[in-house]
Amino acid sequence: MVSRSEIQTEKNLAEFLVQMDSYAPIIPEALTDYYLAQAGFECTDVRIKRLLALATQKFISDVATDAFQYNRIRQQASKDKKFLNKDRKTVLNMDDLTAALAEYGVNIKKPEYFS
Amino acid sequence: MSNRKAEWTEGGSDNSAGGAGSVPSVNTQGAAAGHANGGARQGSQKHIEKVVLHYLKRKGYRGAENALRSDAKLIGQESTLGDLAQAFPGSEVGSDASVPNWILFYNESEEGNPDAYNQSYGELRRWIDSSLDVYKHELYAASYPVFVHSYLDLLMRGLSGKATEFMKRYGSDHIVHHGKVIAVLKTLTTKAHVEENALSRLYRDNKYGIRMTRVGFELLLAFLQDHHYTLLMRTVNQHLNIRTVDGGAAVSSEADADVGITGHTQSQLDHFNSQDIALGSVPLDPFVRDEVERTLQGEAGRMVKDATAKEASELLDTFAKVRQENAASALSADDAMPMPPPRGVEVAQQIADLKALRKRVKLGPAALPSICMYTLHNTSNSLTCATVSDDLSLMAGGFSESYVKIWSLKNEPLRGFVGTINPMSINSEEDVDSIREKTSEPYRKLVGHSGAVFGLDISFDSKYLISCSEDKTTRLWSLDTYTNVVCYKGHNYPVWDVAFSPQGFYFATASHDRTARLWSCDHVHALRIFAGHLADVNCVRFHPNSKYVVTGSCDKSVRLWDVQRGSCVRVFTGHTGSVDTVAISPDGRIMASAGEDQTISVWDLGSGRRMDTLTGHTGPVYSLAFSQEGTLLLSGSADETVRSWDIKRSSSASEHPIVVQRRADQQESAPDAAATDPDAMDVDGAEPNGTSASPKQPPLPSSAEAKKRDAAGIWKAKRTTESEALLKTWRTKSTPVYSLMTTKRNLAVAIGAFTL
C-alpha cells in the first residue's frame, strides 16, 4: 500500500524534475559524470544527474556561508585593534572552513605545525 | 642494593666484585652493576646464586630469597648451570623463557658492556667472511636474523644510540636480500616503537627458519661457544629455528637457506606438508559424455559426407582417446566438487575443447610459443588489471577510477538490451535479438564499483565477468546484458584478486584482511574462509579439478587450501619477497609462484617441495602462465619482458599419489602413501641437491668477477644471473606486462599498458 504522503512526494519529485530540464547547475556536466562514475552510480537520465549536481552545489554554498559567518564572528571579536579600511576584504581561512565543515560531520582538523 | 646499581645506558660499571649484596639485574629496564672484566671468571658459583636470587626477588618469594642470601655466604651448594636450567620449563618463547636462557648463557663480561652486541656481531661477521665458501651462504643467512634480533634487543634495553650505530655499521650487509625489512627497522628508535610495530612483533613472536648443513651448524655453535658470545647464543637459541640437512653442499645460495618466518617450525612444516591431497582431473559427467557423442555421431552420420562430417568423426576418435587417457587419473564422482547439473553450454564447450585439442600446437623447449601481445595506450597509469576470455572474443580491463572496460576483440558491437525485458514475449532467438540495442560500439564501460578495481576474471563460457575492488565488494556482471547482476559483500578490507573456478559457478577472492574466501555465484555470502596467512593475500587461483585453491601472500609464502574442508594442506616457503602471482599447470601437479623478489619458484604440489628456482627477471613478476602440456612456463614482468622457461619434470620429483581413494579401499592406498613419503625423504638425503637441482645452478662467474665479488663481500654484488632454464626473452617497448594466458591451442596472449 502506498500512502498518500508517498504519492505526494513522488508528485513533487516529478514536478521538480521537469524544472531540471531547463536548469543547468554551475558544476559542469563532465565533472558530475566523472565523479558519479567513480562512485559507481550509473544513470542515463540527465535530470537526475543535474539534481545531484544541484544538491552538491547547495552543500558547497551552505558550507561557504557558514564559514563566512564564522569569519564575521571572529572579526566582531577582534574588532577593536587591527582593523584598517582596506582590510575589509574577507578571505576564506582554514580555521573558518574547519569549523564550518565540523558542523556537517566532516573532520579536517590537522595537528598544529609546531607540535 | 639500589645504591650499588648503575644505569646501563650511562655505561657506569660499579666495581663490586664478589659482593653478595649486589644483584645484577635481569630486568631489561633496570640497572646492572657491571663487574670489572678481570674478576669475573672466578666464582661462577656466585653468578648462579646471584641470578637465582634475582629471580626469587622478581617473583616475590621473600622467604626463599632471604634464606638463600644467608645461606649463600656458605660455600656448599653444588648445583650446576644445567641443573638450575632444568628446573625451569625450557622451550616456550616468552618473557619468562628468558630466565633459563640467562642462566644457561650468563656471561658477566658481556653483561655490563653496552658494546657487547656490536663487538660480538662484528666478530661473527669477520669470522664468516673468513670461513670456507661452502658454508658462507648458510652462515650469512643465519647472521641475518641474529642481526635483526640484536638490533631489537638493543632498542628494548633503551640503547638507541648504540642501536643506530650498530645499524649503520652492519645494516648495509643485509639490504640486498632483505631491503624492506631493514628500511622498516631503521625507523624504529625506541622501546615503544618496537613494542607497537607489527614487523618487530612478528620477528619477536615467531621463530625465524633457517636451513643449514649439520657441519655448518656445528661450526657456528662451536664458534659462539669458544668465544663465549653468550648474547648471540641466546638469540640463536630463542629466536632461530634451524633445520639441519645431511649431505655436502645442500645449500647453494643464501636464498636457499633462508626459510623465513612461517608461523611454524620446520618439523611442523614437513609434517604439515605430508597431508593427503587428491590432484586427479575432473571426471566427465555422463550426461555431457552422452550428449557429446550423440552430437558428434549425428554430424558424422549425415547423408552428405562433407568436411564437417569428416571432422566430426575425427573428433569422435579424439574424444575416445582423451577419455581413455583421463580414466586413470580422474577423480571419482564422489570426490569431485559439487556442481550444478550440466547444460548445453558444457556440451558445446567440450566439443570446442576437442577441436582445439586437434589443432593444438605442440610446445616445448624446441618449439617456442607465438605470443599475441595487446598493448593498451593512453591509460595514464590507471589500468590496474586486465584479462582475456578463453575464446579470445573479449578483453576486459579494470581501472583505478572504479570502472571496468570491455572490448570486443573481433570488433563486433557489444549490444546490450533496451529497456526492461518481459519474458512472456520472448519465444525465439529472433525475439531476443529484437530487444537488443540496434547498434553499439565494440567497447563498453561497466560502472558499479566505488573504488579502484584490482582483479578481474571471465568465466570459461564467456558469459560472466567477475571483478573485485578496493570498496571491499566483488561484483558479478553478465556479458549478455552488460549489467551488474550480483554484489558480494563479506570482506572488510580491499579485495586484491578474484578467480573463477575452471568449471564455473565458484569463485575465490583474496583480500588485505589476510584471508581468501570461496563464494558460489548464487550465494551472496562466502561459503568458506581460508585463514592462515600472516599478511595480506595477494593472489588466488583454482586447481584444475576445482578442489583446491592456491594463494600467494605478502608473508612470502604460498598456501594450498582444500576447498571442501576450508583447511590449509600445504605451505610453500622460500620466497624472499611478497608473492604476487601463482599459476598451476593444466595437469594439476606443478605450481609456479613469483613476485617482488624477481625469481620464479616451481613447486611440486604433491610433496610440497621446491623443484626449481628460475632467475632472470630484473623487475617484479606480475603474471605466470603454463603451456597446455605443462613443459613451458611463461612469465610477464614489470621489466617489460616476457620470458619462457623450461620446466624439467623429472620422475623423481613427484612421488605423491595423484588420486587418493577415500573409501573402503583407503587402507591399500594409505600404506602406499606412507611408502612413497620415506622415498621422497631419501631423495633429499641421497642427492644433496634435492630441492634446487644442480643442473639449474647459475653459470659460474669468471675468476676476476669472482675475486671482485669476494673482496666486496658476497652480499654486495647483486647482478641477476639467468637460470639455464631460460629459453627466450621477448622485450616489449616500454610496456610492463600485466597479464599472461595460454589458450587451449597453445597460443600465448599477453596484455600490457604502454607506460612512458
List descriptors:
heterodimer; A: 115 residues; mainly alpha; 4 helices; B: 756 residues; alpha+beta; Methylamine Dehydrogenase, Chain H; four-stranded antiparallel sheet; 21 helices; elongated; disordered N terminus; TFIID_NTD2 (chain B); Transcription initiation factor TFIID subunit 5 (chain B); WD40_repeat_dom_sf (chain B)
The CATH architecture category of the domain at 371-415 and 438-472 and 493-674 and 725-753 in chain B equals 7 Propeller
Structural class of chain A: mainly alpha
Structural class of chain B: alpha+beta
Strand order of the largest sheet of chain B: 5-6-7-8
Specify the CATH homologous superfamily of the domain at 371-415 and 438-472 and 493-674 and 725-753 in chain B.
YVTN repeat-like/Quinoprotein amine dehydrogenase
Q: Return the average pLDDT of chain B rounded to an integer.
A: 79
Largest sheet of chain B: 4 strands, antiparallel
Q: What is the CATH class name of the domain at 371-415 and 438-472 and 493-674 and 725-753 in chain B? A: Mainly Beta
CATH topology of the domain at 371-415 and 438-472 and 493-674 and 725-753 in chain B: Methylamine Dehydrogenase, Chain H
Rg of chain A (CA only): 20 Å
Biggest beta-sheet profile of chain A: none
Indicate the overall shape of chain B: elongated
In helices, the fraction of residues of chain A equals 55-70%
Note the beta-strand portion of chain B. Answer: 15-25%
In angstroms, what separates the terminal alpha carbons of chain A? Answer: 60 Å
Low-confidence stretches of chain A: none
The helix content of chain B is 25-40%
> Could you list the spans of chain B in which at least 5 consecutive residues all have pLDDT below 50?
1-42, 74-97, 662-701, 712-717
Which overall shape of chain A is indicated by the principal axes computed on the Cα atoms? elongated
Question: What is the end-to-end distance of chain B?
Answer: 70 Å
Total strands of chain B: 30
GO molecular function, one term (chain A): promoter-specific chromatin binding
Subcellular location (chain A): Nucleus
Keywords (chain A): Nucleus, Transcription, Transcription regulation
Family (chain A): Belongs to the TAF10 family.
